Amino acid sequence: MLSAGAKEKIQRIIARYPVKRSALLPVLFVVQEELGYLPDEALHEVARWLDLTFLDVETVVSFYTMFHRRPIGRYHIQVCRNVSCYLCGGDAIREHLERRLGIRPGETTPDGRFTLSEVECIGACSWAPAMQINFTFYHHLTPERVDEILASLP
Amino acid sequence: METVKVIINGKEVEAPKGKLLLEVCFDAGFPIPNFCYYKDLPPQAACRMCLVRIEKMGRLQTACTMRVSEGMVVTTESEEIRRARMAMVDFILANHPLDCPVCDKGGECELQWMAMNYGDLLARFDEQKDATGEYPLSPFIWLDPQRCILCYRCIRVCDEWVENHALGVRGRGAHSVIVGNRPDGTLACEHCGNCVEVCPVGALTSTNFRFRARPWDIRDTVTTCTYCSDGCQLRLSVRDGRVVRAWAKDLTKMDAEFANKVLFSFRTAPETRHNWINEEFLCLKGRYGNEFVNSPDRLRVPLLRRNGRLEPATWEEALKYVAQRILEIKRTYGPESIACIGSPRLTNEDLYVLAKFGRQVLETPHVTHAMDVDWRPFFKRLTVPLLTQPELREQMPTILLIGGNPPEYNPLTAYSLRAAVHRHGARLYIVSARPIGRLQVATRFFHIRPGSEPAVWLALLDEGEVERAAEATLLTREELYELRRFVWEADRLALLVGREVTGPALEAAAVLGGMLQAKGERIVRVLPLLRFNNSLGALDMGLVAEMLVPEQVGPQIKALYLMGCDLVRFYGDAWRQALARAELVVAHELFLTRTAELAHVVLPAMSFAELDGTFTNNAGQVQRIRRALGVAGDWRPDWMIIDQIAAKMGADLGCRHSAANIFREIAETIPGYQGITYARLNEEGAIQTERPLMPLEVIDRARLLERLRAQVEAIDHTAERLQEPAPLGIGLFEPGTLTEHVPLLRQAFGWDVRESVEVSR
Ligand code: SF4
Ligand code: SF4
Ligand code: SF4
Ligand code: FES
Questions:
Q1: Checking DSSP bridges between strand B233-239 and strand B242-247, what pairing results, if any?
Q2: Within this chain, do residues A31 and A98 fall inside the same structural domain, yes or no?
Q3: Engineering a disulfide at B230: which of B412, B505, B625, B713 sits with its beta carbon 3.0 to 4.6 angstroms away?
Q4: How far is it, in rounded angstroms, from Cα B84 to Cα B58?
Q5: Contact A59/B169, CB-based, under 8 Å?
Q6: Is the pLDDT of residue B337 over 90?
């Protein structure tokens, strides 16, 4: 299921920890990077590597919003809806995104390019309103700035 | 143990250093409200109900995680704390359906109690509640996620008590949901129901009990489990003449007010609050296996064979017929032509009366019981006292298990082994021919060749035999030396003996303790993992003759008196022909078993739920069983049936119409039972019989070693180790004479149960 490179990376991560299960989160990130999401088979596999049960892995995955159990768009847009962003017009940003992309939070564009999510605080209160696309932050957003950002994506 | 002084609400209290503050407060008489705390489970600090003020600490602290240290000054009640607790209740209720009238837990719910005592009338949240439906996690267990208060008790119990690791939490925050270990969220586990037992609210419920009764319209009777020899105490809840559940709450381990006012107020006699044996643990059979007593298939009237068919008869007819036929057979063929065989599930009182009847009235030497393993040599040569479950859990830092599969056949013992490891870091060594799943807490696992258990005992007894044992067991010499050191250097040692240990090895198991103790100051206790709830009682009551082989029936044996004993099922089909050759077969039974079908007379007996009496568990502890059900059939206690037959034969067995009278006689005549009375049993719960111990000098050890060596030589030295653990449920999920009449078990495991033969009316 995984490339040889990813497998090697995972072995290196596991070797770094005295207790195998400690490697769970970094290993999951490698798998997700490779597959784009975390299907059941991947969780079974990870459980085997780390001497855990499927349930152990699955409950951890379900705790974090950054893990995806289903395929998502190439760009995962996460708009903050927490207090600071909300006060600085975060709502308008979300509405603008919904209009531009034609989808609601939780949905993916038909071409598979974008998935939109609402998230809680992403730690950018002083530059609100903010969003995160995959692992990149964008702040001091205005609808225009959002358009620019979207247009700049490869 | 180092102690510290702490001040709680102005009262100076001394406590062991490092003990949880919540427990110290509890002991000092200041109970602290809690949800996620549970005695002996790892602290969780999920509910924040236990907040207290500790001087010099900024915020209120959770008493369930705080460990006491010298000079701690604690306040458990104040306006600040009251408000904090109120907020916590409010928080927990934020998404809780407030529909207690239709919740199965209503009336015995910890949340109701907390809300009443610590909550506010007005909720501050007015958000929409997140309504979801309930659904089954397994054939035994339902989950109503919305009622769940996320205390994680169920998860911890599944991890710690039974090592099934079958429960987890999916999601986070308010959206967390308890899930099972299958990808679809259901459970693949041993179905012990302990998670249900500890759930403080109506989130987890048992299929057999849910919505069938209200706590205030059931009556509880504390009694003893009728399955394995560990002997759990349980509460049988009865409603409208039917057993509706079994549970095992220990009412001394919780807030006394909650116990008194809610769980305990009108249900049980005061002497039965504390659970000595099993704390709050029960296994699948103990919890879900009792409803055979409600079965419509129970025999309700005596049956007499007329013209080749079993037909209903009156007691008078049946008893008279039996008495007459026995007298005839005795006169014609002599007393030795009659055999009495009891069941190791019956009470001491029943078995004692059967033995007395056999010896004194029938005057036959053939008085015995159905045995799966012959433990007689073990008890004959016992050199150290038997080990009780509380001792196993609390007092034994070194534990050796040889053979057996406790999670499947002695589940309470498995629980106690885990507790010993978790609570005080006991070192547990396991020697077994196959890996034992669900005892992963073991310190060391010694994987031996199947059938080579005797060689391990040989090496333990005699250092000179290590070489021979290594060859037989496939263990290395180093491993065997390690085992020897483990045993010979221990100060306090528990030896657990599984059913694979037989013959001379079993004698060795009985003798090793004495040898160790002779070597120096130390304590050794031994626990034989017997099969049935009263296997040991049957031996004690003197049902110890050699078991018959079917070929004896006909030529020698003309009459079989069977008490609760399904020979065909237990010993195989050869008994069908044997029964056909007998001139008289009398069977006391609950159901028309394969054997009863072939009897001439079938007498309907009472089940353990309808009787008073005692069982003796594998630690030699006598415990009461108590009548929980009224009369729903024309059935009688086994002892009474025999007493009445004896009377018709002109003999008096001295039962004087009550089990208590019989027990009095047992206490006078059976070694080790002296001084035990029903009154004492009510008060003390379990009383250990004092077993006659054999002095080492009397035992011919050279001879024993010789026989043991011969046993080792006979081991098949080509057998390979078994790599796979025995499948989950190999013991627990197998149908038995009683369990196959429990509808829930039957459905859950898809047992194809033979329909009982129609009895003509
Ligand atoms: S029934 Fe027993 S084994 Fe199954 S989930 Fe509950 S506690 Fe665990
Ligand atoms: S199901 Fe019951 S025991 Fe388990 S977390 Fe929820 S409330 Fe606690
Ligand atoms: S462990 Fe044994 S005694 Fe306890 S409930 Fe189970 S079968 Fe009964
Ligand atoms: S009992 Fe202390 S936090 Fe739950």
A1: antiparallel
A2: no
A3: B412
A4: 14
A5: yes
A6: yes
Q: Classify burial at B42, counting beta carbons within 10 Å of its beta carbon; exposed 0-12, middle 13-18, buried 19 or more.
A: exposed
| Contact (CB<8Å) B181/A62 | no
User: How far does Cα B64 stand from its chain's mean position?
Assistant: 30
**Architecture of the domain made up of B303-371+535-618+626-676:** 3-Layer(aba) Sandwich (3.40)
**Do A59 and B165 lie within an 8 Å CB cutoff?**
no
Prediction pTM value: 0.93
Residue A88 falls within a domain, yes or no?
Answer: yes
* Statement: residue B366 has pLDDT above 70: yes
Would you tell me which CATH number, out of the four given (3.40.50.2000, 3.40.50.1370, 3.40.50.2300, 3.10.20.740), belongs to the domain B1-77?
A: 3.10.20.740
User: Same domain for A89 and A134?
Assistant: yes
Atom of ligand 1 nearest to the CA of B161: 7
Among A41, A50, A53, A62, pick the best mutation site for testing chain B contact (most B Cβ within 10 A).
Answer: A62
Domain boundary among A41, A63, A85: A63
Query: Which tokens belong to A34?
Result: 């490779």
Instruction: Pick B376-529+695-726's CATH classification: 2.140.10.30, 3.40.228.10, 1.10.357.10, 3.40.50.620.
Output: 3.40.228.10
* Region B401-417 average pLDDT: 97
Does residue B66 have its Cβ closer than 6 Å to ligand 4?
Answer: no
Average pLDDT over residues B238-243: 94
CA closest to A56 among chain B residues: B168
Q: Which residues of B touch A (CB under 8 A)?
A: 165-172, 179-181, 183
Among B165, B170, B172, the residue with its CB nearest the CB of A58 is B170
Q: Is residue A44 part of a domain?
A: yes
Question: Cβ(B206) to ligand 1 under 6 A?
Answer: no
DSSP-based helix, strand, coil % in chain A, nearest 5: 50, 10, 35
Query: Least CB-CB distance to B171: which of A53, A56, A62?
Result: A62
The number of the ligand 2 atom at minimal distance from the alpha carbon of B195 is 3
Atom of ligand 2 nearest to the CA of B143: 1
For residue B233, the CA-to-ligand 3 centroid distance in Å is 9
Closest CA–CA distance from residue B126 to any residue of chain A (Å)? 20
Nearest to B285, CA basis, from B749, B707, B664: B749
Average pLDDT over residues B216-239: 93
pLDDT of amino acid B264: 65
Q: From the CB of B158, is ligand 1 less than 6 Å away?
A: yes
pLDDT greater than 70 at residue B349: yes
Query: How buried is residue A131: exposed, middle or buried, by Cβ count under 10 Å (0-12/13-18/19+)?
Result: buried
Contacting residues for B61 by C-beta, under 8 A, at least 6 apart: B21, B51, B52, B53, B54
3-state secondary structure of B596: helix
Q: Given pLDDT bands bounded at 50, 70 and 90, which one contains residue B98?
A: confident
* Together in a domain, A87 and A54: no
- Residue B245 CA to residue B603 CA, distance in Å, equals 27
Q: Angle at CA B409, nearest 5°, toward B404 and B411?
A: 105
Chain A, nearest residue to B177 by Cα = A59
For residue A32, the enclosing domain spans 4-63
Question: What is the average per-residue pLDDT within B184-199?
Answer: 97
Contact (CB<8Å) A63/B171: yes
By Cβ distance, the residue of A54, A56, A59 closest to B183 is: A54
- Domain boundaries along the sequence of chain B: 1-77, 303-371+535-618+626-676, 376-529+695-726
B203 lines ligand 2 (CB under 6 A): yes
**CB B355 less than 6 A from any atom of ligand 1:** no
Cα A28 from Cα A6, distance rounded (Å): 11
Asked if residues B525 and B397 have their Cβ atoms less than 8 Å apart, the reply is no
Q: Is A55 on the interface with B (CB under 8 A)?
A: yes
